[in-house]
Amino acid sequence: MPLSKLCKKTFLSAVAAIALVGSSATQDAVADSSDTGFTKLFDGKSFEGWHGRPHIHRDKYAEATEDQKAKWAEELTTHWSIDGDELVNDGHGAYMTTNEEFGDMEFKLKYKTVARADSGIYLRGTPQVQIWDTTEEAKFKLGANLGSGALWNNSPGTPGKDPLVKADKPFGEWNEVHVIQVGARTTVKLNGELVVDHAIMENFWDRNMPLYAKGPIQLQTHGGEIRWKDIEVRRIGAEEANAILASKSSDGFEPIFDGKTLAGWKGAVDDYEVVDGAIQCRKGRGGNLYTEEEMSRYVVRAEFLLPPGGNNGFAIHYSGKGNPAHDGLTELQVLDHDHPKYGKLDPRQAHGSAYGMVAAKKGFLREIGQWNFQEMTIDGSKIKVELNGNVILDADLAEVTEYMGGQKHPGIDRRSGHFGFAGHSDPVRFRNLSVRKLDAN
Asked: Is 316 within 8 Å of 419 (Cβ atoms)?
């Protein structure tokens, strides 16, 4: 049943409080912020903290010989120089690459380039935030006329591929780049103008996989002199990252948990309790808790906290009877799948998987003790799961032909039902639960 206006107000107040954790955790994710927490990546004196690396897959770089790495290091001294507080490249050689790897972060720098130069910024070792000569007509067919700052290596027609506005300054002037990246969700401002708004940055190296969870920052060299300065980064913690994700595309979401009671829920209400504003499965208990309301097409958002080895699941289109993993459309697994006791796990049992049917991509859960943010879209037989800003499952269950253990799911054809939890006696916690109904179109 719908929550009262008071419950909705309580929910929205909680979300707003979380959103104040970090200076950038707002609807405008790259609003100006103080330098508190930022680390300068270039000291203006040396290449300390950097190494040479070309356009190469991370595995290929790891396999490179010492002679190859020495050659790339030599290219830094040949093609890169320091001019005052500026890092200068002549348009050739290996890319300047951070020794450190970064995940969720806020990143800023300034650049100045010349006519016919074509450069960019690799994030997590992946191309790239594009830098163009926007006057070069020969590259208009590639999008140079649209401006810099976009995720040019995204697939054609996808969000982020082209900039929202053209914001480049004339040659001879410094351009300011400001990036917020949470998971693969990437926001870019160029000279104060929003050019990429919370778009998924694709994994150029393997488009069937999400963007790597971590990787280096690389400054690309390509075709002409480019100067860089004021290069700095700030790591974004889990709470702030979740607040940023919650703040985006939030219109239409309604709370389904008031943060205080189990009003609006039924089933195994005695097996769950409310602890510190979260629904928690009682240790050693574990029935199915589900919404009183049935839903058909919707997007649900939730934060969850796993204990070591924790196991639960999101019940989708549950009938109210039997096992949600089989008698509903599916159970989307909630699991610390890296725990040693799950060493022989079937891939279709990993976190985020449509249980026993379709395996989710692994490697995107936060460390145990940190809250995770998950968004699930249920549209007919199609299910998409985005974990911490990374799409880990995008499947049509109507196309499944092989089931774990050969056990077909009786509920596979269900197109409506309850949303809930499939408890497994572990004290997994859930909070900030909200749903946006999808209209018929």
From this structure: yes
